[in-house]
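Q: My labmate handed me this sequence with no annotations at all. I'd like to see what the chain might look like in three dimensions before we decide whether it's worth expressing. Could you predict it?
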Amino acid sequence: IEKLKAKGKRIIMDIDDYWTRPIWNGNRMEGYEHQYTIEIIKALKMADVVWVSTPYLQERIALLQIDSVLIPNAIDYNDPQFIRGEIKRDKLVAGWIGQNNHHIDFQLLSRAEIWKNNKIEYAIGGVNEINDYWLYLAGCFGGKVKMFEGETMDKYGYLYNELDIVILPSVARDHFSCSKSNLKILEASAHSLPVITNGGLYREINGRNGMRIKDNWNKALSKMIKSRAMREDYGLALNDWARNKYDIHKINEIRKQTI
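A: Here is what I predict for the chain of 259 residues:
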């Protein structure tokens, strides 16, 4: 960065994670995390423009006396992976698509014993290898769950064709988790899928564009299973809401103004 600035180059830094990873995060580098944090903050202070993905992260960066521009994550709704395919199956499938470090979120489902609802099948996608983490997530659905491998960035969205209902447990518990974005509801919106969430990071789910609950996952899921109209209404409302706010072409216009 110093060499580029010396040549008169304008530095733009895009950050969408908090700079100190908590103990529960599998990517944390014990013994090096403090230096890792120092280097990120140093880079942020050297940048001419800092883009952040969430209001919470923007608030935390402001405490470092660093100005930033809010550039939320967004979806290209014309990308083939985010266009719903033709789906034919005997049973509805509810589930979750994601990556590592969500075991604390899934404790909500484990306590709810969501697997007791046998009128539906369950699936999780994004599995990079069968290890203790993914087996735990599968166990939160009673172990009777389809597991789909992760995909590259240009194919990741296709995994949502495996779901009819998206379940999004979320525990906002520290600076790192509170800084995460709403990308999972945007991905669901692209496929016009109904979402059930307890809130957490997904506070924008408000009862009109999805089902927001306190803790009764089974009751919410039962309602969703019984009513095709409810599933379609929530899915279409989520798609309409997200397209208006988080279409990548609209968000890129904000980027252009800061370059």
